[in-house]
Automatic annotation (TrEMBL):
The lineage of its organism: Bacteria, Bacillati, Actinomycetota, Actinomycetes, Kitasatosporales. It holds the Pfam family TadE. The keyword Transmembrane helix applies. The chain crosses the membrane at residues 20-43. This is Septum site-determining protein. InterPro entries: TadE-like_dom. It comes from Streptomyces venezuelae.
Length: 131
């Protein structure tokens, strides 16, 4: 009986040591999940900025914001979109806006290409009522 108690006493803390060995793997898996969530969020924000900028570029209203301002206003503060194509397209041509967003890194060795989203919005020709 005494020998059984001595063996049990030596096993104390074994689970804690096994958990400490497994903890780095859990940390990497958690950070990878967080990184993938940030990638998805950045892609969604780039699409939102592209659509908002394209919508503003095709609007003929005088009080409407310019293309780049509308695109930046449509996204979160930590996203810094690079908006291109705001000056293009005249007359009845469709406007094509491209937005590029850098993806922040959570895991240092895991690098991503920037997210690029494009939105095409047709210009509506002026009607007789507008003239």
């Amino acid at each position: 009986m005494r020998e059984h108690l001595r063996t049990r006493a030596r096993d104390r803390g074994q689970a804690a040591i096994e958990y400490l060995g497994f903890l780095p793997l859990l940390l990497v898996v958690g950070l990878a999940g967080l990184q993938l969530g940030i990638v998805a969020y950045a892609a969604q924000q780039a699409g939102t900025a592209a659509r908002a900028a394209a919508r503003a570029a095709t609007t003929d209203e005088e009080d409407a914001p310019d293309c780049e301002t509308a695109g930046r206003a449509a996204v979160s503060g930590w996203v810094d979109p690079e908006i291109g194509g705001c000056g293009g397209g005249t007359g009845d041509e469709a406007v094509v806006i491209t937005v590029r967003v850098e993806i922040p890194r959570v895991i240092p060795f895991w690098d991503f290409e920037p997210v690029v989203k494009t939105a095409t919005m047709p210009r509506t020709p002026p009607t007789e009522d507008d003239e």
